[in-house]
Amino acid sequence: MTRPGKGRFAARGARLLAAWIAVAIPVGNLLAAEPPEPLKVLPAETIPDSILRPRIEALLPAPWRIESLTVEPLAGAAPPSPDPQVAVRVTAAVVLAAPTYLVDSREGPVTFLRPAAEAGLGKSWVATALATRGSGGWTLALTAQSPGLLDGIGKPAAELPGRTVVLGTPEAKNLREQLDRDAARRLAEDGERRRREEERLAQQTAAAKAEAARAETERRAVEARIAQIADLRGKLAGPDRAARLAAFEAALGGNDPALRQTAMEAALQSRDPVVANLALKDWIARHRAVPVQLYATKEDPSSEVVVQNLGPMTLEIDGFSPVSGALAGKLGAPGYSIARPSSVVGTLAQTELAVNAFGCALTLRLAEHQTMDGLLRCQTLPTLIARITLD
To answer: Which of 23, 214, 335, 343 has the smallest C-beta neighbourhood within 10 Å, fewest atoms?
Structure first.
């Protein structure tokens, strides 16, 4: 017996075809027409199409639709039951309602599809059905006889992810060319970025090497300088006077200000009067105007006022003989007429400097802290403390 197919069906997975499904559906007035004594065996055509078709449609995946149903009774297939039963073989002629596709590849948001099946493809779907009519209505159980029949035919394009494009179409060709151009552009940009990064890394590496080399050169120069100064200090502080004098003269005769200053400091702090005298002669020979600092004495209270009124005192050196230590120049301060600048003569004898001017005498001796300390004596003025700082 063949029943014409009607309507569409909802999408379901083909793997559900192997399950037994029981549904109880009331049949309303059909039961009212039954005789008081229900039959134990029902003919196949008594299974309502309104029950059978929706159950099959629920099992078929989209986009298959039923073209026709063929129902054949199966004699002796129903198990014993107090309710009327019927066992049948159902053959559904199903047809693809829309073309289906398989995913070929995915590139970003684009999904390229391969055609799997055209619309109108037909298949025969077979199942056995056991229908029982009880007091509550019909119970129908279906068992698919070909569970994998509809597998592997793909899905409609609307059910696949992303922007779907079918291979072989102009859209797919244009899109593929665009994707290739984008990929080539990204590849070129990545290559350029890597090149810039490599250049930057090479520059950083070269700069780091240059900095390391500079630091190493500087470190070696510092170590050599430290060793040179330490060697000079050692010679200036050594027990051999000849070595001390030679080291001092070499430092003063060179063009290295640091070594000269080091030699001066060591010589001025030395207990050797000869070396100290050489240092003082070199210092005086290099100066033309030497400030003389004046301080009041506690013994004479008026000396504070004299210091304030005198103003700055300066020893101007016009000539100096490093051999004899003889000095000529001017000495004075603007505050008092007796202390105003006037010609002076003086002598450096070992570590003592004596300067004489009209009415004033300045006597200084080398002290421990690189200063020459002493007294300034002028007629009609109190004695003042005097100091020259050997900078």
So the answer is: 214
Domain boundary among 270, 285, 300: 285
Helices 257-268 and 273-285 cross at an angle (nearest 10°) of: 130
Q: How many CA atoms does the CB half-sphere of 45 hold within 13 Å? A: 3
Co-location of 55 and 150 in the same domain: yes
* Final residue of a structural domain among 285, 302, 322: 285
Which residue range forms the structural domain that includes residue 199? 168-285
On whether both 38 and 174 belong to a single domain, the answer is no
What's the pLDDT tens digit per position in 352-362?
Answer: 999 998 888 99
Q: Distance between CA atoms of 136 and 24, rounded to whole angstroms?
A: 7
Q: Tell me the pLDDT tens digit for each residue of 86-103.
A: 888 999 899 988 898 988
Q: Are residues 113 and 104 in contact, defined by beta-carbon separation less than 8 angstroms?
A: yes
Same domain, 337 and 246: no
Cβ partners under 8 Å of residue 38, min gap 6: 83, 84, 133
Measured in whole angstroms, the distance separating CA 386 from the mean position of its chain's CA atoms is 65
Task: Give dist(CA 156, CA 116) in Å, integer.
Answer: 10
- What does 185-250 look like in DSSP terms, one character per residue? HHHHHHHHHHHHHHHHHHHHHHHHHHHHHHHHHHHHHHHHHHHHHHHHHHHHTSS-HHHHHHHHHH
Residues 99-114: b if buried by 16+ CB within 10 A, e if exposed? bbbeeeeeeeebbbbe
* Residue 227 and residue 137 share a domain: no
Alpha-carbon span 47 to 129, nearest angstrom = 10
Q: How many CB atoms lie within 10 A of CB 331?
A: 26
Give me 43's structure tokens. Answer: 């003919």
* Residue in this structure with the two tokens 């199942």, named with its chain if needed: 127
> For residue range 10-57, what is the model confidence (pLDDT) as tens digits?
333 333 333 323 333 333 333 333 444 443 445 555 788 888 888 888
CATH number of the domain enclosing 300: 2.40.128
